[in-house]
User: Which sequence fits this backbone?
């Protein structure tokens, strides 16, 4: 985990101890260090300015440090502890996972950076809920974290990946003898299903575009591109100028999610967005941030949700809804877009995935042509994963 440390006070020499100040997340702490054993303890001063931290440090050295000197030596104290008294902080467990466990597993630099960012957000969530120690983690805290992730618009698969990383982090701490057991070992991971597709009408998409232009202009062009092309957020952020043929309106590029080569046409409005980006100085990535760096998917998500909250949009909308709206509106237009064409525009490998955007209740030509082969209208009872089936259904299916 990335630490924001700033030593702002000269080290105070004390027999067998060294104290110094540091700041993390706008809060000042005093660190007590034993040079012989290289052991460090940190105490929050609950102040936010350097002047208050200096005063609190003097009070700490006058009243608390004498008590620390009366304690046994750290190595003797550690050996006298029982296994049940091990109680590291949440931050220490996160640091062990990102600084020791993952590198020993041979994780790539990109994986390490992603894990550090996600665990930093988890640590901030725990701090906001006054959870400082790993033993204070509970199923209720994890459920609250899941609710926050869903509120932020994360997909169910992304949430499951983060929950899996949380469990792996706690299990790594148990293997390292930092914890006697995982505090959420009996907690069952919830079955998070993808929400039903709720496409926006063309009027709703226009309202979304207007809200983003008013409250988040830095990502307005990227959001308009997604509305006009149905691209995924990752494909939008990674779009290169050289991948767009401005004369024919043809885009040829590899998809970020599937790594497959995609080739599709775009409308004149989308071509105008690329021309405007080139006129603004874009040479590599089409969509850039204010500092000229490529626009990140995280920043795109954050600015999009911030714009909708500022505009008090009447319903929850995610970037994924823009892609679903593009496919649904084309599939159910009058006249409808040919299904193979829509499959190419959406970048689907299987036409069954494209069929999800066709409303089977309308009885349109796509349902008549593909419905029998794709099983539209068939019962899906007990076709889910055995873990999500009732127990009696699981037993009856065994031979």
Assistant:
């Amino acid at each position: 985990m990335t630490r924001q440390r700033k030593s702002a006070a000269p080290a105070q020499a004390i027999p067998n101890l060294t104290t110094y100040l540091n700041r993390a997340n706008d809060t000042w702490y005093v660190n007590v260090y034993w040079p012989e054993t290289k052991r460090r303890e940190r105490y929050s001063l609950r102040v936010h300015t350097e002047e208050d931290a200096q005063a609190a440090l003097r009070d700490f050295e006058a009243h608390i440090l004498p008590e620390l000197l009366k304690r046994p030596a750290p190595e003797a104290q550690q050996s006298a502890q029982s296994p049940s008294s091990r109680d590291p902080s949440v931050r220490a467990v996160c640091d062990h996972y990102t600084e020791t466990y993952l590198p020993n597993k041979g994780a790539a630099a990109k994986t390490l950076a992603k894990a550090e960012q996600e665990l930093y957000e988890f640590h901030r969530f725990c701090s906001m809920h006054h959870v400082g120690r790993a033993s204070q983690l509970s199923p209720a805290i994890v459920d609250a974290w899941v609710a926050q992730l869903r509120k932020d618009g994360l997909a169910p698969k992304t949430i499951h990946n983060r929950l899996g990383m949380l469990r792996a982090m706690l299990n790594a701490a148990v293997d390292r003898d930092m914890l006697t057991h995982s505090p959420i070992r009996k907690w069952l991971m919830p079955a998070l299903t993808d929400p039903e597709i709720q496409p926006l009408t063309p009027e709703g998409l226009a309202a979304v575009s207007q809200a983003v232009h008013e409250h988040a202009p830095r990502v307005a062009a990227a959001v308009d591109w997604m509305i006009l092309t149905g691209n995924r957020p990752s494909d939008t952020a990674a779009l290169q100028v050289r991948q767009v043929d401005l004369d024919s309106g043809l885009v040829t590029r590899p998809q970020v999610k599937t790594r497959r080569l995609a080739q599709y046409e775009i409308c004149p409005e989308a071509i105008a967005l690329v021309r405007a980006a080139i006129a603004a100085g874009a040479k590599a990535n089409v969509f850039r941030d204010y500092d000229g760096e490529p626009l990140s998917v995280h920043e795109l998500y954050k600015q999009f949700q911030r714009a909708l909250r500022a505009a008090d949009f009447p319903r929850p909308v995610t970037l994924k809804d823009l892609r679903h709206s593009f496919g649904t509106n084309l599939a159910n237009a009058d006249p409808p877009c040919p299904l193979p064409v829509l499959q190419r525009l959406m970048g689907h490998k299987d036409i069954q995935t494209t069929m999800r955007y066709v409303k089977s209740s309308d009885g349109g030509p796509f349902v008549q042509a593909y419905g029998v082969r794709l099983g539209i209208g068939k019962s899906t009872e007990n076709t889910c994963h055995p873990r999500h089936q009732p127990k009696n259904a699981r037993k009856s299916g065994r031979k």
In short: The mean pLDDT is 77.
